[in-house]
Amino acid sequence: MGVNLKEIDGIKIQLKHLASCHCGFVKFELDLPDGLIDLRRCDCSLCRRRGAIAASVSLDGINVLEGQEHLKLYQFNTNTAKHYFCGNCGIYTHHQRRSNPTQYGFNVVCLEGVNPLKVGGVPTYNGGNHPADRG
To answer: What is the CATH number of domain 3-116?
Structure first.
């Protein structure tokens, strides 16, 4: 599993933490009673290019407050994972995981008040060799 954190650089992760894309069109609230769970990077073809740190939340643990109409969906390969990003600024906000479809991964960079550059020791998952890709 990945790293779990209740604070980053002295900033406490709130039970209900606000997040947004860069332009602010998409605003969402995350239910994080245990802090940031299972922080990780992935080395699949998409994640290598976007370079995000993702943390986990259950499907009911994310609530889009504003900008649902600005979210765009991107799928590739097996079309199992659902990757969402702001259609205005292009920032990846969250995705429904292929490895665990009962969870969303969300972009830690979107968390209000948190500097993700202060997060260390985040493991990289081998998404480039996912079991669903093997024949």
So the answer is: 2.170.150.70
Q: Where are the beta strands (DSSP E) in the chain?
A: 3-5, 7-8, 11-12, 16-20, 27-31, 36-42, 54-58, 62-66, 71-74, 82-86, 92-96, 103-107, 124-125
Domain boundaries, the chain: 3-116
Closest CA to 47 of 3, 88, 7, 85: 85
Is the separation of the CB atoms in 38 and 1 below 8 Å?
yes
How confident is residue 113, by pLDDT bands cut at 50, 70 and 90? very high
Q: What percent of the chain has pLDDT over 70?
A: 90
45: left (phi over 0), alpha (psi -120 to 50) or beta: alpha
**pTM of the predicted model over 0.85:** yes
